[in-house]
Amino acid sequence: MNHLIHAVQKELKKHMFDYLLLCTGGVIFLLFLRLFQGYRTYSFMIICLFVGFYVFWGQYHHTKTGRVRLSHIVEYILIGFTILFLLLLFIQP
C-alpha cells in the first residue's frame, strides 16, 4: 500500500498542471450542471462538453508524456460515454 501511495504522489508531482486542469474542468462542470439544473437540453450540452473535454484532456496528457496509443484514446472515449450515459440516467427523470 505504501508503494501505491508513493507512486501516486510521484505522478501528481510530475504532472501537477495536467491534473489541476482536469480537476478545474470537473469543478466548473459541476458548477454549470448545478446552475442549469432542471433544464434538460442545457444539462445534456454541458455533459457532452465535459465528455469532450475529458477525451481531449486524456489525449493531451498522454501526448505530453509520450505514451499516446490508440487504445488509450479509445479507453477515454468509452469512459466518457459511460459517464454520459450514467449522468443522463440520473438527470433525466
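(ticket continues) Second input and output from the same batch:
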Amino acid sequence: MCRKQAACHLRQDKAAAIFESGRMVSNMNICNNLRAINLVREIGLSVNLMNRSMERLASGLRINRASDDPAGLVISEQMRSRIASLNQEIENTTVTLNKYRTADSAALQLRHSLTELRSYAVAAANSGANDAAVRQAYQTAAENMVSSYNSLIETTSFGNQKLLDGSEGSVAEIEKLNDLDFSDPESIEQAITEIDQKAEQLDSTLISLGSKQKNELERNLSTMRIEVQNLAAAESQIRDTDFVSEYAAFMRNSLMLQAGVALMAHANLPSYTVLSLLNSD
C-alpha cells in the first residue's frame, strides 16, 4: 500500500473515531457548548440571589419591593398605617391626660386650702383664749387664703385653656369662695358652713377628675400601647429580615457562585477533546 493510500485510510479511521465519540457522548460538540450555557445561567442566578440577600441584610427588611411578597407588602403597609394612627391617638390621649392631671393637682391644692381655712375658723372661734388682735390675725390670714383660692381657680390653665372656671374647654367648674368673716362666733359658724359646702363640692370634682383619668384615659392609653406592641411584632414577622437564615442563604449562594466560576474553566474541555482528535497526526 502506498503512502498516499495509508494517509487516506488514517483520515478515515480518525473520522470514524470522532463520529463514534460524538455518538456515545452527546454533548461533545463545538458550536453549542450546553455545559457552559448552563453554568452561565446558574452563575447569573447565584449573583441575583446574592444581591437580594445583601439588600435584605443591608436594609433589615425581607420585603423591599412589591415583587418580594405582594400580599405580605400590602398587609404590612396596612399594619403600619394602623400603628401610625394609634401612635397619634396615644399622643393625643397623653396630652389630654396631662391636662386632667394639671387640673387634678390644682383641685387638690384647693382642697388643702379649704382644710387650712377650716382650721383657722375653728381656731378663731375659741373666744376664751382669743382677743381682738388674735381674731384679726386669723381674719387677715383667711382673707389672703380666700384670695389665693379664687385666683387659683381663675388662673389654672393648660396652654391657653382654663381648667377650673367652667369655661369652654375646662374640665371642671369650681365655685369661688365668698369673703369669710371671723369677727364673732355667729359669722365664724357661717364661714365654717360655707367652707364645708365648698369642700363637699370639691371632693365631688376630685372624684370626677380621678375617675376620668383612671377609668378612661389611662385604660385607653394602656390598651392602645398593647395594640401597637402586638401590631409591631406581627408586622416585624412579615417584613423584617431573619438575619440568621438570610446570611446562611448569602453564604450558600456565594459558594455556589465561586464553584460555578471555577467550573467555567473546565466547561470547554469536551470541545478541546474533539479538536485534539482533529489535530493529532
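Agent notes: Helices lie at 3-24, 34-59, 70-124, 132-155, 185-239, 243-264, 269-279. The two ends are 19 Å apart (CA to CA). Closing as not reproducible unless the customer responds.
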